[in-house]
Design brief:
Blueprint (H helix, E strand, L loop, with lengths): L9 H4 L3 H14 L9 H15 L8 H9 L2
Length: 73
């Protein structure tokens, strides 16, 4: 399959960011079904992070904080 980029779909590239994000989510979710297996190590990592969060060992980020961190990458 040839590489596919947003530039290959100019009509999508012109959409507002919020709509592109919604479409990206819909596209991602369309490829995931109940039969999709999650690797055991993924589940263990998620479980540990959830336990740490519930125990107060991790801090929640606001959306603005997350965006700021991502912008620095």
């Amino acid at each position: 399959m040839p590489p596919t980029h947003l530039a290959d779909f100019p009509e999508l590239a012109r959409l507002p960011k919020a709509r592109r994000m919604k479409l990206a989510d819909e596209l991602w979710m369309s490829g995931i079904g109940d039969e999709t297996r999650v690797p055991q190590w993924h589940q263990e990592t998620l479980n540990q992070r959830w336990q740490d969060y519930q125990a107060g060992k991790t801090k929640r980020l606001t959306l603005k904080e997350l965006e700021g961190r991502l912008a620095k990458r």
